Amino acid sequence: MSDLDISTPATERRHLRLPVAATVFIEIDAATSTDAEPAVEVCTARDVSRGGLQVTLSRALQVDQLVQVAVRLDHQDTEAPLFLVGQVVWCQPDEAVPATFAAGMRFLDVAGTEYQRWNDLLIEEENRGAD
């Protein structure tokens, strides 16, 4: 079962969900978009964890689709976004916000990304919450 599967009980998840706000930029590949060029979707994250996050966006993503993601934790105004590769784990219409989709993605440890820095930042957030 996936770490981000919405049917996964919280007790079975590998990573703690953190109450941090984040702005997420997702590059939608032209091959999977209706546009001729890649599009960038600006989203707000929910359910942030070291393993990935959930976003609300205006278009559906395909399960297993790989996307380039830039994430900026909102309370870290001076920090540049972290660049990561995400794999879509699930996507469904968002019942809370009409005409949008909710998607869960896991981050992949890929060379050339800031995967380790993301983990370090989220560990700091976890420790801050434990204090």
Automatic annotation (TrEMBL):
It comes from Parahaliea aestuarii. InterPro entries: PilZ_domain (IPR009875). Residues 13-117 form the PilZ domain. This is PilZ domain-containing protein. The lineage of its organism: Bacteria, Pseudomonadati, Pseudomonadota, Gammaproteobacteria, Cellvibrionales. Transmembrane segments: none annotated. It holds the Pfam family PilZ. Gene3D superfamilies: predicted glycosyltransferase like domains. GO terms for molecular function: cyclic-di-GMP binding.
